């Protein structure tokens, strides 16, 4: 990996605010923002509900038809699947669950890891996901792991969905968040966990501004 590229990783569970934080940070640092959840969601959306039950060869054949590119920088970074930007269609809780289902599969993880590392070789970035610090960018210069209670995360996700004009039921979201946490933390490959050298921040009691200030404090040496 090119040592001059600045790679910052932000990992954490669903609804913890990684996306918002990664976007803000990328804007602040004028680097690209890599939303790896969008890549898992994009694959899940393209393949459909029960794709994770298919055999490895047919999944590999499907994946060969997909290519991801990252356009733009900062808040305007845009993840494209086969040259088409991924939009709100992948942002539902249902697609989130489908994504979590296919994220257990080695064939999918290997495919996306390669795509993510290729993007990381081209540009400095803030990479956000579940295994950025542990698996995809183990040599990242800065690694953060954001956490918060499932209840706090469900409330944040609820407000986010409302904001996007989507129907939302907070109890259903909480149930899905817990189910996704369980799948993401306990899967055999690349489970959700902080890297040994990650800075862990519990954001339950913090505002977005507080979290950003905390990240920037740690990043001071890279900024000046
Ligand atoms: O972050 P987001 O909620 O968009 O991710 C959707 C799902 O994709 C997660 O629940 C997780 O199962 C999977 N994912 C992953 N590794 C990543 C990013 C997302 O397994 N780096």
Present the secondary structure layout.
Blueprint: E1 7-11, H1 18-29, E2 32-35, H2 36-47, H3 56-64, E3 68-71, E4 78-81, E5 84-85, H4 93-102, H5 106-122, E6 125-129, H6 132-136, E7 142-147, H7 150-163, H8 170-186, E8 199-202, H9 208-223
The protein binds cytidine-5'-monophosphate (C5P).
Describe the structure.
The chain is an alpha/beta fold and 224 residues long. The chain has one domain: Rossmann fold. It has nine helices and eight strands. The protein has helices spanning 18-29, 36-47, 56-64, 93-102, 106-122, 132-136, 150-163, 170-186, 208-223, and strands spanning 7-11, 32-35, 68-71, 78-81, 84-85, 125-129, 142-147, 199-202. The strands form two sheets. Strands 2-6-1-7-8 form a five-stranded parallel beta sheet, with helices on both faces. The chain has a three-stranded antiparallel beta sheet with strand order 3-4-5, covered by helices on one side. Strand 3 (68-71) and strand 4 (78-81) form a beta hairpin. Helix 1 (18-29) runs parallel beside helix 9 and helix 2 packs across helix 4. The two termini are 23 Å apart. Bound molecules: cytidine-5'-monophosphate.
Write down the overall mean pLDDT. 93
How many strand units? 8
Strand order of the largest sheet: 2-6-1-7-8
Instruction: Determine and state the CATH class.
Output: Alpha Beta
Uncertain segments: none
CATH structural architecture: 3-Layer(aba) Sandwich
- How many domains? The number is 1
Structural class: alpha/beta
What molecules are bound to this protein?
Answer: cytidine-5'-monophosphate
| CATH homologous superfamily (4th level) name | P-loop containing nucleotide triphosphate hydrolases
Helix proportion of residues, in percent?
A: 40-55%
Order of helices and strands: EHEHHEEEHHEHEHHEH
The main pleated sheet reads as: 5 strands, parallel
Shape: globular
Helix count from the secondary structure assignment: 9
End-to-end span in angstroms?
23 Å
């Amino acid at each position: 990996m090119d040592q001059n590229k600045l790679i910052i990783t932000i990992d954490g569970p669903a609804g913890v605010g990684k996306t918002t934080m990664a976007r803000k940070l990328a804007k602040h640092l004028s680097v690209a923002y890599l939303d790896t959840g969008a890549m898992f969601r994009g694959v899940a959306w393209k393949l459909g509900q029960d794709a994770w039950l298919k055999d490895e060869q047919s999944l590999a054949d499907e994946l060969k038809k997909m290519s991801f590119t990252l356009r733009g920088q900062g808040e305007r970074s845009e993840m494209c699947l086969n040259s088409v930007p991924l939009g709100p269609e992948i942002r539902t809780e249902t697609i989130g669950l489908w994504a979590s289902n296919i994220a257990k599969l080695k064939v999918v993880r290997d495919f996306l890891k390669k795509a993510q590392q290729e993007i990381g070789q081209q540009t400095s970035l803030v990479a956000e996901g579940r295994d950025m610090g542990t698996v995809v960018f183990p040599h990242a210069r800065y690694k953060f792991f954001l956490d918060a209670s499932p209840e706090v995360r469900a409330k944040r996700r609820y407000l986010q969905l409302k904001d996007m004009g989507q129907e939302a039921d907070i109890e259903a979201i909480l149930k899905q968040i817990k189910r996704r946490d369980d799948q993401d933390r306990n899967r055999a490959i690349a489970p959700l966990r902080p890297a040994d050298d990650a800075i862990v921040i519990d954001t339950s009691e913090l505002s977005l501004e507080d979290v950003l200030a905390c990240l920037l404090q740690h990043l001071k040496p890279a900024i000046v």
